[in-house]
Amino acid sequence: MTGFPSTVAERDAVDESGNALQRVLRKLAAGELGSLRVLIVLAIIWVIFQIANDRFLTAINLTNLTLQIAAVGCISVGVTLVLLLGEIDLSVGAVSGLAAAVMAVLSVKHGWGPYPAILAAIAVGAAIGLFQGTVSTRLAIPTFVVTLAGLLAWQGAQLYVLGSTGTLNINDETITNLAGVFLDDWVGWAVALVVIVGLVVTELGFRRQRAAAGLVQAPPVGSAIRLVGAAVALLGGVYVVNQDRGVPLSLVILLVIIAFFHWLLTRTRFGRHVYAVGGNDEAARRAGIPVARIRTIVFVLASALAAFGGVLAASRLQAVNQSSGGSDLLLLAIAGPVIAGTSLFGGRGSVWGALLGALVIGSISNGMDLLALESSVKFMVTGGVLLGAVALDAATSSRRTTGRT
Amino acid sequence: MTQAAVSPSGASASGGAAPLLKLSGITKTFGAVRALDDVALDVRAGEVVALVGDNGAGKSTLIKTISGAGPADGGSITFEGREVHIKSPQDSTSLGIAVVYQDLALCDNLDVVENLYLGREARFHNQPFSRMNEVEMEQHAIELLGELQVKTLASVRTEVGSLSGGQRQSVAIARSLLGEPKIVILDEPTAALGVAQTAQVLALVKRLKERGLGVVLISHNLSDVFEVADRIVVLRLGRNGGEYPATSDQRQAVVAAITGVSDDKPASAATTEVQS
After folding, report:
1. CATH, domain range A34-181+248-333+341-402
2. How far is A181 from chain B (nearest CA, A)?
3. Which of A102, A124, A309, A347 could join A279 in a cystine, given CB atoms 3.0 to 4.6 angstroms apart?
């Protein structure tokens, strides 16, 4: 260790002013506990709606909530990747609609099998991402402009693909099952247990590795709290949805996607480079990172995820029409990660924010529907929550940067 | 010339005082403007050479000819005794020349370890999607910072954005050492730093020298230069304006060479070659 004072205890000793509660509150205000902050927001929203209508926190309604957020959550994962670069993708809604239309036309009109049709939809998304990413990086056009053009163009392409019929009902069971199938109760429990065991084993292995290398360990309490929190969320979630129809397949798909991208962002060189480009692209370039390639790959991933989100939405609706992927889908897909603390300026955030943000927005929408409120109120409240979250983000991030001497 | 290349790491076994890097007759023009005209510079292992001069004297242009960011139009560069052609930053890096820029080029949103290893992350396998070896990177980061005696960091997992200017400079310098360079070029490392932080960075420069590295220090601040440098090379209007040993009695001569007001000679003919 060569006498290098890097122990957590010493750092805490430096930071030792006020009691533990004050320290947590300070970290919370400074945005260090971003996901905890959005969990608190979510808890407040749930309590309010439960008081207003006691059907809100029932198994059937919470199951519906997860079904409602699967598509937008999937699109939000891609949006999060783009936001981490400090870029924006305004075309994700239109891409999801176009991809769903492509899948529906291939499946219904051309008799393609379900898997080729879904893969074709995702390939269309990836190709669009490749195009937009390449145009933006090669010609140095802001992604805002490129994807705004995309938003218009892909909407047009969607109308063109759907043709005169306008609406296509999807009969293929494999496709509709994506959003319509639920795991058996025991399968849900088994999956939850396997995941929990996996998390514990990974965490223990991680700590053992660090201990063997003589590195500083984070206090075990932190690991324990995180693991217990994850276990309670998983088991509690499975228990609740098992009271109704069981764990929705679409929720499992969303969680697998999020877990994969979390791994990609935090454990691989590619993910590190995404954060670096978002934090300081000039520094990334000087470090030898292929900045343009990273940007292009992220746009490919974002559009492919948007396309798959469109497939999930079509599966739930069991149809694709001219307004698929339109309306407020794009705005909600961007608002979700932002509410959950993903910075619009790049370099800060986590893909779990896609899930948490989608839960916040989905809960507001779902709760207001239960209260039979007008969609006018729904939009205004969602807007207010978004503004509040971004204001909090701006206030805390300016505090972070001014904290430097 | 006190050339005592007693490097603890035994990095360079350079034969006596043969320069590690030798520039001679370097010219560079931008259109009609002659930015560098017949400039020479020697850097030896275990030596700190300060490059000083007024704004527009050609310091940055000269550095760019070494770093490959702006190759020279003419002249020769010799590295470890053989003539080399530096056409790109990659050429310079592969020779073993590292540059720490004034604006540092760190990512504020990444922690110290992540910044140190940016672009050269350690991985378990050499495949596109292999997991990074965080333990190895953190261990080496602690080792390296310990060797450099960078002691003020609370943790190597601190976000760089929350560090002080001196700490950021230390991280940037440590980062340049990961490529195991033979020469480190520091562009204004103490600009915009407070007194204590400047002292911290200057101490770090001395440790680079102790490691047997050749250091080129570009600075406006003459008291910093006299504190750490062995030799001072003055550039004036794109030409060599003289070379001085960094002893305090040379201060007036250096200032005169920089400003060109020495001995009522015309500025363009400031050939006060005081060889040590």
Report:
1. 1.10.3470
2. 32
3. A347
